[in-house]
């Protein structure tokens, strides 16, 4: 059972069938109750018509034996006095049993066959009061049975009190058969019992088919995702249905995710390839010098070996920092004065001028931000002709640190590309200076990790101006 309900189609079909079944049962019950109520109202109207007709004859003084009584099997009529004695009824009516009336206080509520006495309308009421001649306006409906020609059936009865011209108070009961109501309700029940299962089967089948067609694109997406997982080919895409529903949006979102994943994996591959290439040069150089030194100690270039080792150490540190940033490492939550950090990093660097460095407190990793400033100053030193200007100020809720040089600047179409990893616009000079094209990429990633930005534009002296913006809070 659990395995069967593991399908979305099965659960949707079951849910739709249960909901429709509840709705049909409720609607069917309402229809049956309404039909029964309407038919009972019709029977009450028929019984009321007959009882008023007989009561009118009695109020007019017509003798009991001359009453025009209807056919007993259709409308049984019974007239009783205050003592419950039968004074008039059809010949074929053998017994009438009427339940307690629902309205009125008149006599004759219990209509046992109290006798056949017929006083011809000459009897007198034993009560001293002289009731007004005529029928009562209150007609009391009730439920009961009547035995006519040996057959007992259910009837709706109407009762009314009447006073004859001889001051005799009588109660007249007239019934209307409920056979039509019972037949109609029974027929409706039979139709519902047959039609309800057929309708539920139709709903179940239609729901299953419609759900299957609606979920067919989902199965296509699942199959393609399984194939992509098996082949590890992120260039493949799931089929997008030509609709505007949730399934189509799911397919488009899935393809966007695959595209982003493919781009991320491709960047990772390029990063690994570039890192391997950058590591190969200093390692090869260092190995060569050590091998030469081992064979000819007098030719060992200790200074060059140290430089290659330092270069290798810096590159490894850069790669480790990028790996931590890519892993989502959050900066330390420390509060410090950024102006003090600027003075420390700029101190002792030739050509660096601090113009308007105001005291600004920021929150973050002091070590990472020191690395950003060092990278920006190193980059400016490699490109400046002789002057580097550093400014620090607060603008609204931001701390703005600017590093500008008087070099040749960065072409406008290259201003975003320089922040990519292992990108060097001046390949020869960058390699000679020991740069691997990671400094600006690290600086931008650190800025983003602190909730800030790093951009570049043209400096007032014609070089490049790097602007680091960090939130004050």
* End-to-end separation: 57 Å
Oligomer: single chain
Number of strands: 14
Largest sheet report: 7 strands, antiparallel
General shape:
rod-shaped
Number of domains: 3
Instruction: State the helix count.
Output: 8
Decide which structural class fits the backbone: alpha+beta
Helical content, roughly? 40-55%
Beta-strand level of the residues, as a percent range? Answer: 15-25%
Order of helices and strands: HEEEEEEEHHHEHEEHEEHHEE
The residue ranges in which pLDDT falls below 50 over 5 or more consecutive positions are 101-128, 427-432
Gyration radius over CA? 52 Å
Q: Return the average pLDDT rounded to an integer.
A: 82
Describe, in plain words, how this protein is organized in 3D.
This protein is an alpha+beta fold and 473 residues long. The chain folds into 3 domains: 1-231, no CATH class; 246-326, Signal transduction histidine kinase, dimerisation/phosphotransfer (DHp) domain (Helix Hairpins, Orthogonal Bundle), CATH 1.10.287.130; 334-471, Heat Shock Protein 90, CATH 3.30.565. Helices cover 47% and strands 19% of the residues. It is built from 8 helices and 14 strands. Strands 1, 2, 3, 4, 5, 6 and 7 form a 7-stranded antiparallel β-sheet that branches. A 5-stranded mixed β-sheet has the order 9-11-12-14-13. A hairpin with a 2-residue loop joins strand 5 (140-148) and strand 6 (151-163). Helix 3 (246-295) runs antiparallel to helix 4, helix 4 packs parallel to helix 8 and helix 6 (366-383) runs antiparallel to helix 8 (439-449). The protein is rod-shaped and about 155 Å long. The protein starts with 7 loop residues before the first helix and ends with a strand. Mean pLDDT is 82; it is low at 101-128 and 427-432.
């Amino acid at each position: 059972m659990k395995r069967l309900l593991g399908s979305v189609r099965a659960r949707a079909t079951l849910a739709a069938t249960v909901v429709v079944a509840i709705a049909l049962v409720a609607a069917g019950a309402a229809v049956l109750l309404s039909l029964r109520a309407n038919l009972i109202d019709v029977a009450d109207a028929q019984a009321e018509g007959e009882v008023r007709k007989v009561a009118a004859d009695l109020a007019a003084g017509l003798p009991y034996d001359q009453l025009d009584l209807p056919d007993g099997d259709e409308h049984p009529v019974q007239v009783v006095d205050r003592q419950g004695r039968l004074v008039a009824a059809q010949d074929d009516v053998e017994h009438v049993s009427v339940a307690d009336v629902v309205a009125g206080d008149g006599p004759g509520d219990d209509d046992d066959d109290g006798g056949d006495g017929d006083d011809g309308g000459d009897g007198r009421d034993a009560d001293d009061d002289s009731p007004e001649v005529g029928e009562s306006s209150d007609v009391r409906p009730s439920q009961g049975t009547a035995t006519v020609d040996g057959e007992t059936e259910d009837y709706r009865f109407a009762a009314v009190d009447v006073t004859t011209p001889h001051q005799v108070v009588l109660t007249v009961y007239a019934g209307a058969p409920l056979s039509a109501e019972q037949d109609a309700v029974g027929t409706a029940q039979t139709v519902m019992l047959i039609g309800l299962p057929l309708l539920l089967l139709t709903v179940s089948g239609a729901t299953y088919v419609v759900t299957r067609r609606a979920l067919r694109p989902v199965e296509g997406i699942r199959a393609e995702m399984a194939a992509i997982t098996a082949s590890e080919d992120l260039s493949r895409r799931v089929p997008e249905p030509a609709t505007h529903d949730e399934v189509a949006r799911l397919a488009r979102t899935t393809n966007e995710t695959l595209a982003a994943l493919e781009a991320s994996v491709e960047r990772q591959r390029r990063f690994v390839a570039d890192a391997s290439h950058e590591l190969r040069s200093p390692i090869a150089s260092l190995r060569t010098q050590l091998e030469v030194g081992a064979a000819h100690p007098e030719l060992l270039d200790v200074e060059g070996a140290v430089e290659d080792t330092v270069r290798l150490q810096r590159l490894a540190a850069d790669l480790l920092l990028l790996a931590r940033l890519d892993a989502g490492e959050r900066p330390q939550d420390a509060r410090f004065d950024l102006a003090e950090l600027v003075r420390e990093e700029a101190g002792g660097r030739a050509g660096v001028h601090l113009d308007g460095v105001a005291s600004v407190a920021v929150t973050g990793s002091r070590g990472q931000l020191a690395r950003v400033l060092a990278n920006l100053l190193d980059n400016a030193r490699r490109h400046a002709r002789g002057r580097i200007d550093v400014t620090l100020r607060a603008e609204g809720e931001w701390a703005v640190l600017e590093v500008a040089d008087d070099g040749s600047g960065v072409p406008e179409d290259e201003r975003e590309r320089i922040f990519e990893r292992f990108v060097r616009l001046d390949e020869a000079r960058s390699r000679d200076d020991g740069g691997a094209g990671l400094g600006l990429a690290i600086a931008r990633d650190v800025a983003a990790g602190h909730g800030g930005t790093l951009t570049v534009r043209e400096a007032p002296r014609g070089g490049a101006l790097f602007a680091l913006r960090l939130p004050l809070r």
